[in-house]
Design brief:
alpha+beta; four-stranded antiparallel beta sheet; 34% strand
Amino acid sequence: MMPARPMAMIGVLLLVGAGVGLAAVLRQAPRSRVVAAYITRFDGRDVEQRHNARIALQKLSGATIPPGATFSFNERVRTWSRDQGYKKAPVSYGGHLIPFWGGGVCQTSTTLYNVALLGGLEVVERHRHQFAPGYVPPGRDAAVAYPNIDLRFCNRYDFPVTITGRVEGSKLIVELTAPRDLPERPRIVQEGLALRPPMMLTAGFGDSARLRNPGKPGAQVVTYRVWRARREFLSADSYPVMHRIVERS
């Protein structure tokens, strides 16, 4: 029995058999090109956070969004449970870092959010973190928590777009590819960025010390997406200061 051939290959063979040269057929075939890309870094992230971010990235990569369709991060990635390969890693809860399943996944959703912005996709749902993460400028983050805190965006183009991702050293890279160039490439601008540095606080007494909380600066920022003929408001975000706490015992 002859092995089954993919439909695309059958189409090529039919054209070649009809007298169309193979080179001409390949020139006519749509080619994907990178239309948007964004990079965040793993600097300062622990091993488990990096591990979880990679797993979420693997689940995202290859997702294609048809014209008019809305993409959901939670629907694609699903749960961050142990049986899915995730590990417990630090997450911020009420100003304290605690180990929880899937800690670090939000770096992947944040990187994806920025690709969606640069790719001109329509943001349907986005949530900020309680405290500003250190791997992206304040106002450019996207928190997720399965199943109710999601990142969603819509493809308003008349062609599909595909999400691809990879890790190179300490860089997490997400790209958006499409069969043709975007009609317009927007840029992101921010206003009113005011950083407030954390204080150093000490709890307890004794000779030994451990860092209980690394601290994060507070910020207030308004973010826009700028097109040739318009300025699109994206978000107004306010992040409280998370103070640096050293525990002595």
